[in-house]
Amino acid sequence: MIVSRGNSVAKIVHRYEHREHTPAREIDVRGTIHVNLVWRGDSAMKSFGIDGDTMDLVPREVPEPTLKPDAVLVKMRAVALNRGEFVAGYGLHAPGSVKTAGYEGAGEIIAVGVNVKGLSIGDRVFGRADAAFAEIASMQAGEVNRIPASFDWQTAAGAGITYITAYDSLIVEGLCVPGDWALIPAASSGVGVAAIQICRALGFKSFGTTGSVAKLGRLKSIGMDAGVPSRAPTFASQVRDATGGRGAKVSVNNVGGTVVTESLRSLCYRGTLVIVGYVDRMVMPEMDLLAVHINRLRIIGVSQKLRSPAERAETTQGFREVVLPHMVSGAIRPVVDRVFDFKELPAAKRFMETDGHIGKIVAVL
Fold first, then answer.
1. φ and ψ at 193, to 5 degrees?
2. Which of 100, 138, 199, 317 is least buried, going by the fewest C-beta atoms within 10 A?
3. Residues 6+ apart with CB under 8 A from 24
4. What superfamily in CATH does domain 2-159+334-364 come from?
5. CA distance linking residue 71 with residue 161, whole number of Å
6. How far apart, in whole angstroms, are the C-alpha atoms of residue 124 and residue 229?
7. Quick one: pLDDT at residue 304?
8. Interatomic CA distance for residues 70 and 157, integer angstroms
9. How far apart are the first and last CA of the chain?
10. Angle value at C-alpha 120, between 341 and 4, nearest 5 degrees
11. What's the CATH number for 162-301?
């Protein structure tokens, strides 16, 4: 039993083993003591890790996470894959042993940290999670979002990181306002689809690139205003034509170095190139400095790697205020291309790497 006291309220946490993993209970005793029955932090659970050498997903049993004061523990019901997690090297994944895996998912809260306010055991939530590819995961309270009533677990699992990243790219860093254009290379990706939907909901225009005519048609049905069915980095003139010669206010670059120069040439005066990822593994591209110089362009990265919990919580709060209401209303609904069983996560990763999907790939527990 662990006891901690803050001000006049004592919070007592009992740890015990429960084979069937039934939900924990929260009991009020005379209005002052909260007793949370949670799972043992040293009990084994099923999970997947990333092999640091091959980037393969490896099934393994690991201890259940320990409840932290500013976090909640979530019984995961569905998890979503993100391509950037599997890009080896460049400081993202050091070689060596198997590392924890998974960035996001959805599930039910089973334990609440002593410093957490406004969240309760049994709440249905989604968001960024530490080591999400597991039966139980830890979420920082500031990054937890309540699931809209119309969302099932699969839909909620894909509603977090890509939409927060798109919000951060378009609004926080891209400074888009209604009527502005956003360039979205690899528009069929999770971030790409999220950016298209946010643009449509908030009155921005979107121009995307994708690998086929069929995908282009599907993306337009989701809300994309214009685009080209080609992955070739030769789209600047088409962007200029679509925007009446002005150019895009922001480019949400989820591809990498191969599209940097063409993206810069596509931007309007004082536009912004946002680097979200580099699945092409090109991190040292050639750059058109003339375009940057003449048009006073900005280049900035959107990454969570070095951000503090407070910084991530601030961006998540902005997402809750600006984007989540459109999910609640039904104007934005995450696009889930395919759903796998949790034990099929390696197959889900292989499918993602074929680039045949539109939107998110999810696994259910």
1. -65, -40
2. 317
3. 36, 37, 38, 39, 110, 111, 121
4. Medium-chain alcohol dehydrogenases, catalytic domain (3.90.180.10)
5. 18
6. 39
7. 85
8. 22
9. 30
10. 115
11. 3.90.180.10
pLDDT at 42: 56
Residue 224 tokens, joined: 């994309």
Radius of gyration (C-alpha) of the chain in whole angstroms? 21
Phi (first) and psi of residue 7, to 5 degrees: 55, -125
Q: Is 208 helix (H, G, I), strand (E, B) or coil?
A: strand
What are the 10-residue block averages of pLDDT along the chain, 365 residues in total?
31 34 35 36 84 86 95 98 72 64 96 97 96 97 98 98 98 98 96 98 97 94 95 91 98 93 97 92 88 96 90 97 98 97 96 93 97
CA of 313: how far to CAs of 5, 141, 240, 272, in Å?
A: 25, 8, 36, 24
Tokens 């150019």, residue? 247
The boundaries of every CATH 3.90.180.10 domain in the chain are 2-159+334-364, 162-301
